[in-house]
Amino acid sequence: MPCANEMFVNSKARAWTCSSTIDVEIDKFHRSLPGYSQTPLLDCSSIAAELGLKNVFLKDESARMGLPAFKILGASWATYRAITKLLQLPPTVNVQNVMDGIAQKHQGLTLFAATEGNHGRAVAKMATLLGIESQIFVPQYLNKSTRNLIEKEGACVVEVLGDYNEAVTEAKVTAHVLGINGLLIQDTAFEGYEDIPQWIVDGYSTMMHEADSQIYNITQARPDVIVVPVGVGSLAQSVVTHYKSQGHPCTIIAVEPESANVFRRA
To answer: Of 93, 115, 126, 60, which is closest to residue 234 (Cα–Cα)?
Structure first.
């Protein structure tokens, strides 16, 4: 795929740092989930040689807890945090405690989300794990095979006559109708809805912790450059927060396709 000639360089970014408020319980929570294992770190030695670099690694997220993407890391943690808050439980209880709390206080609890694929599958999978229902709203152009994959995770798929943004609106409105029994688990923030998207961002930190450990075991060093796809922005935010709070200078390169260059246009 050809690359665009246009690049934006922030010369001040390399020295910029931030503080991290990532919960130390996140890794522990993910390790407690069925099917959890570290995803592989691939050694791309031929690319490193071509570029004249010592090492190039690729974190392979094509198989994460039975799903073909990293999204379950964010969706699972955000769902867990949202429900423990609803049940007034500390964010240290195990999944069985959460399920017991739902059975005792919120038997009609339903998760809602809008998606074009992987996020919706992840929310549906988490709902099934907790023994509750999920409704996943999709834009009308989403292909049948993707809808089927979401349904296989136990969700009720609702088609919206519009695009992704309209699907988000419909999911939000429908969840609101159910009151405390409707939980919107969405990876895009809007005014008055910031906690759950932030928990999704926080959940992705497990991937970075895995990668750091894997890289160090091979090189006895920390990464100097991180390349991350932008997408809706949640993963990129998580990467920046993690690597800019480590006290080690690190360059972050954000990449997005020309056909969906929302970061560039922003």
So the answer is: 115
What secondary structure does DSSP assign to 125-150, as a single string?
HHHHHHT-EEEEEEETTS-HHHHHHH
pLDDT in tens, 71-105: 999 999 999 999 999 999 999 999 999 999 999 99
What are the backbone angles phi and psi of residue 199, rounded to the nearest 5°?
-65, -35
Please indicate, yes or no, if residue 242 is contained in any of the structural domains: no
Crossing angle of helices 234-243 and 195-203, rounded to 10°: 60
Q: Where in the sequence is the domain holding 123, given as residue range(s)? A: 72-200
In a domain, 50, yes or no: no
Range of lowest pLDDT (12-21, 126-135, 200-209): 12-21
- Please state whether 166 falls in left (phi above 0), alpha (psi between -120 and 50) or beta: alpha
Rounded CA-CA distance 129/183 in Å is 16
Helix, strand and coil in the chain, % to nearest 5: 45, 15, 40
Cβ pair 127, 154 in contact under 8 A? yes
**Structural domains of the chain, count:** 1
> What is the CB neighbour count within 10 angstroms for residue 103?
12
